[in-house]
Amino acid sequence: MTTRPDPAAIAAKLRQTATVEEGAAHLKALHLDREQLLAVAAALMLTRIPARLSMKKLTEHMLNQAIGARRKFEGLRSW
């Protein structure tokens, strides 16, 4: 029996990840399918995810929102 990954736990891990590259490596190691990636996106509270995005683009979109945007706003806050 295989256990399904917990989208909320993955989302929490991504929120704590320092770089987009580290996040990409983490997601790649999990071998998530499209449905699981969409569940992680929902756990990240991402909106407006086009249904036709490829797996690669969906992953990039998630990482940019979860990590890139956070780092951008942290930089603005310290400015």
Topology overview:
Layout: H1 7-16, H2 20-30, H3 34-43, H4 55-78
Describe what this molecule looks like in 3D:
The protein is globular and about 45 Å long. The chain starts with 6 loop residues before the first helix and ends with a helix. The protein has helices spanning 7-16, 20-30, 34-43, 55-78. With 79 residues, it is mainly α.
What Rg, in angstroms, do the CA atoms define? 13 Å
What order do the SSEs take from the amino end to the carboxyl end, as H and E?
A: HHHH
Total helices: the number is 4
Assign a percent range to the helix content.
55-70%
What count of structural domains? 1
**Which structural class is indicated by helix and strand composition?**
mainly alpha
Distance between the termini: 50 Å
Molecular shape: globular
Mean pLDDT comes to 85
Q: Proportion of β residues?
A: under 5%
**Can you count the beta strands?**
0
Largest sheet: none
Poorly predicted runs: none
In short:
This protein has 79 residues and is mainly alpha-helical. The protein has helices at residues 7-16, 20-30, 34-43, 55-78.
Structure characteristics:
single chain; 79 residues; mainly alpha
